[in-house]
Amino acid sequence: MARLTGKTAIITGGARGIGRATAELFAEEGATVIIADIHEPDAVNNPAISFVPLDVTQLDSWQTLVDSVLAQHGRIDILVNNAGLVGSYEPITKIDLDDWHRIVEVNQTGVFYGMRAVIPAMQAQHAGSIVNVSSIWGIVGSSGVAAYQASKAAVRMMSKNAALSYVDDGIRVNSLHPGLASTPMIAAQDDAITADVIASTPMKRAADPREIAYGALFLASDEASYVTGIELPVDGGYTAP
Q1: Which of 64, 92, 133, 236 could make an S-S bridge to 201, C-beta 3.0–4.6 Å?
Q2: Tens digits of residue pLDDT in 171-212
Q3: Does a structural domain hold residue 88?
Q4: 112 assigned to some structural domain
Q5: What pTM did the predictor assign?
Q6: For the chain, what is the domain count?
Q7: Which residues share a beta bridge with 181?
């Protein structure tokens, strides 16, 4: 069954990792998918997927993207705010201030800009689903990674705020909280950090990005028509204790 037939979806950070897996799954389920990323994806073989360059920290670029999608497709049914970065593993007293501002700008302000740009179109059609990708570290604490944790926790609460603010407009907003996944971002981090997270995960392994994408698919689809304002961990049990 094609669960997203006839729907148009924007996925930020869709060039690789969880975003790419989500784009491919959404297209398989019938959606027209626009990957919006600062990086151009490797070869895309599905004609339902297109690429538009986007820096999520630039509100004007967001508005240009929205105007373009509306002109071409007439509507925006789904927004997956997936773009993000860890950026620094330093704690509050040691993190470089430029790193702090850049991480918050991408992870938190980028999500804010995405919702700000897309919500009016969803209001006009009185329907829409927004999936904001947070993290397990947006729910539970960890030492270090101060800016990443702060920004991802903000995504969780921003999602709840938007869910309640726009529920009468037919817009659902939820946050998705992946655990450790086998992505290029995780491959680039220190092996000791990865091993520590896996050791703390009851399933004792990293997720395949497609496993995370299925969580996004549920929240985006009409199967979640009575679901708004929740945080959905897909984390191998990491947040269960």
Answers
A1: 236
A2: 999 999 999 999 888 888 888 989 999 999 999 999 999 999
A3: yes
A4: yes
A5: 0.96
A6: 1
A7: 207
